[in-house]
Amino acid sequence: MNAQRTNDEHADRRFTEAGVQEDLQRQPHLFVRLAENALTVAESLRGNYFQNTAKFIAALRRAIAQTQGGRRAEPILTVHSLPETSWDEVRNEVVTFTDGGVGQVQLASRAPILLRVGSYRVRTGERQLSEREQFGYYPVILGDLEGGSRERRDFVDIVRITAELLAGLSALERTPDLRVLMFHGPLTYLVGGYAGHTPFTERDIDIFLHQYAPDPRLGQSLKDAFLQEAKLDIYPHMTQRPDTWANQRLFEPLAFMAFLLRRLRDLAKDRQPPVYVVGVVERGSLREFSETILLERVFRGLRQKGNINYFNNMYGRQDLSTPKALLDRLGYTDALLLAMVLEPGQYSESWQMHKFDGLRRGEVTLPGETSAEIVNFETLKPASGHGFPPIRGCYLHVSEITEPVRIEVFDDLVRDTYLEEVVRRVRLYAQLLPGYGFPVGLDIADKYAQVPAWLTNAYSKLIRYHLGVSLQRGDMSDAEMRRVLVQAIYMTHRDWLFRPEP
Length: 502
What we know:
This protein is an alpha+beta fold. It is 47% helix and 15% strand. It has 19 helices and 12 strands.
């Protein structure tokens, strides 16, 4: 009886300004975030920034509680509570975690030269270590690629994203009993910013496929499937020279990414039962959910009540009359707001994410040419049917001492309990890292994929030594130099990849 009274009192206090302030003071990571915001917002907002935030969150919590209780006509936010999940419920499931990393060496300048994608596969509940865990390894030497605009800072990103998608596709195709495929980071990035890169050549794709498909026939099948689709459906809508692109067997990076994602979605969908494909984002700075869903509903309700100046009166301003203006001025993000609203074990309603608004017309230069041509990237939007698949996202609050993580899935796969089952598994794996609140398998894959800084620093000395000696002798070929780079950064036995067997 006393325990029930204590819980009720705690619940009631959550809806008060004082209760919110107590919660924030008990969560240093949120308190620090708000303190940082208070230093960056306009001086007129600094005085009562913390107190006004607590007042706003208390009102938001009350509105959400009314939504959950059915006492509100239009919901402000639908919050779902996860039931406790035991490991017995997922026993014998096969899960693959995937992440990519870039290796850099300090020579004349610090430049990325190598990329590797690591995958960590585990069968839950298996006691035999040799059967429980397996590691995959997908390296790419950036200097070997002909396509891509290497003068752009995001050149490494399009290579990494392509390699990660191929690694995920490889895991799905090589593992008939795969149940969960989890990526470290978004399932799809904001791809508009990557438009305009020089297309990859077929030789480039062969370098990618060397690890993805050791059997040349599998790689050839994947290339032919893309080029056939590109010739008939994609390039005619993208460029005025579709035959030139198809005859040269060029792989436009964003079109190829979209093709890989659709193939990943279709393979996962065709499995029985369907494979859970998910991207998990930590410490994200996105504010799309707050702007287009949460605050849009708040402002709509304020307009209906004739109280559009609610935030202006609270913060002593005249320009806080739209969700965008509020977020711009006050520095709130999705993760920060939802960390103050959701309790551990809760996740938000999902929404279809606006990943592709930035796809517009842009200039592209083909390999071996100097003049650019205008290319229409809008054709890669989901509505075209041959573009990127639509993505659905939600936020999960794992632990009180961490911010919520963002979960992304293919919108086409969200049926019945699909999303809940995905969120349950993300939380279950994240609970193994209680101080981090992120799936443990992704943390392992991240460490596996990254090239350690101490390693590259040490071996940069080796590279300089070999380079200096060979230049004096005149006996180092390009192939030999690449071999030294691979040995120095990839294939060293001191790397965690080659750790001793237990």
